[in-house]
Amino acid sequence: MDDKKQLVAKEAIKYVESGMTLGLGSGSTVEWFLKYLSDEMKLGLNIVGVPTSKKTERLANHYGIPLVELAKETTIDLAVDGADLVFSDLNLLKGGGGSLVREKLIDWIAEKLVIIVDDSKMVNQSGQFEVPVEVLSFGWEKTKELIEAQGYTCQLRVINDETFISDNGNFILDCKVDKLYDLNRAHIYLKQITGVVDTGLFVNMVDLVMIGDKHGVREMN
Ligand code: 5RP
């Protein structure tokens, strides 16, 4: 799996040009992308990045990739991000690493969004899925009840016996659902609940998906 992630991350460098402001996604595939980016920067590539998570921020600092704040005047030419699942219509399920809110904001405003994944992430839109939902810690059990009233079964994300806290200081609920035919509708219904900050459903955002498989890298748009 790692070979495929490495391969696709390296290939994505071809879309990076000097002078760009890049949205730097999160996850293990993007971590390879950051490494290849830093290799290219040693050869003269000149970019700045906006990280989608504190982990990406730390790694970018480690590689010497210059970072800028997401401010009023910031524009993002290209965002390169990973995904947990990519459906056949190129909508995404994200949030496995708990960075969905910052990822969604940066991926949304980017001129171009390129998703890099290995082929295990490509799925059909039928069957059971688990949607990560970032919620306020305040009254989270009430928010959970409201989400479950929409047909989900949610579990508070706990890692190593500790409640997972997002970079924004919120909790994540992993919400199982039997059918997920209309992602946009599912997202809108969840998002209207007051305690919900955002969902891991990324709808109509992607420009290009790059998929690493045993034969190389293929692209879908
Ligand atoms: C984090 C995400 C990541 O983009 C996703 O988990 C990436 O997966 P991988 O580690 O396989 O690249 O959505 O919130």
Automatic annotation (TrEMBL):
InterPro entries in the record: NagB/RpiA_transferase-like (IPR037171), Ribose-5P_isomerase (IPR050262), Ribose5P_isomerase_typA_subgr (IPR020672), Ribose5P_isomerase_type_A (IPR004788)
Active site: E103
EC number: 5.3.1.6
NCBIfam families xrefs: PRK00702.1, rpiA
Assembly and binders: Homodimer.
PANTHER family (alphabetical): RIBOSE-5-PHOSPHATE ISOMERASE 3, CHLOROPLASTIC-RELATED
Protein name from the UniProt record: Ribose-5-phosphate isomerase A
Protein source organism: Alkalibacillus silvisoli
